[in-house]
Amino acid sequence: MSAGERRLTAASRMAIPQIISTGALDCVNFGPRDTVPERFRGRDLLVHNDSVTLMRANEEEMARLGTRMAERVVGSLDKPWRTAIWLPMAGFSSLSSSRGPWEGRVGFERFRENLVKGLAGFLDKEPRLELRVEEVGINEEAFAESAACRLLEMMKEAEEEDRREHNFFHRNGRVR
C-alpha cells in the first residue's frame, strides 16, 4: 500500500502550489489482520474493516517520518514559496484526534522536532517556505477551510508570478 517513490516530490518538481500535511501519517496500513507480519502483532492494531488493519506508529517511527518528510521536501523544491507544510498537532488522523482510540498516544512532537530540524537550514535560506503548526486535528473543519483558502491564495500568487515570468521572457526576446 505504498504511495510510491515520488510521494512529496511531484508537485514540488513541477512548481505546482501545494499544502503538505500529515493525513493518517500516524497509521501503518496492512491488509486483513492475518496479513500483519509477526513482528508487529504485539503492537497497537486496529481492524478498520475486513481488508484493512492499521498499526499505530510509535514515537521512534514518528521521529523518522519527520526526518523523511524534511528530506523529501528539501530535496525536491524548485520554488519553495509554492509549498506550505501544515501540522495539525492535535491529530494526524481521526484515530489520533480528539475522542479517537489513539488520542494522546502518538508522538507528534517527535515528528515536528525532526521535521523542523531537517528543514532548519533550508528555512533560514528560504523564509518563504511556509511551516504552520496548528493545535487542531487534521479533520477539523477550521483546519480544512484554512488550508483550502491558503491553497487558493498560493495558486493565485503562482499564476501572477508565472504571468510575470512569461511576459519578461517574451519581452526580452528569450522566447521565439
Automatic annotation (TrEMBL):
Gene3D superfamilies for the chain: Uncharacterised protein family UPF0261, NC domain
Domain UPF0261 stretches: 1-155
Protein name in UniProt: UPF0261-domain-containing protein
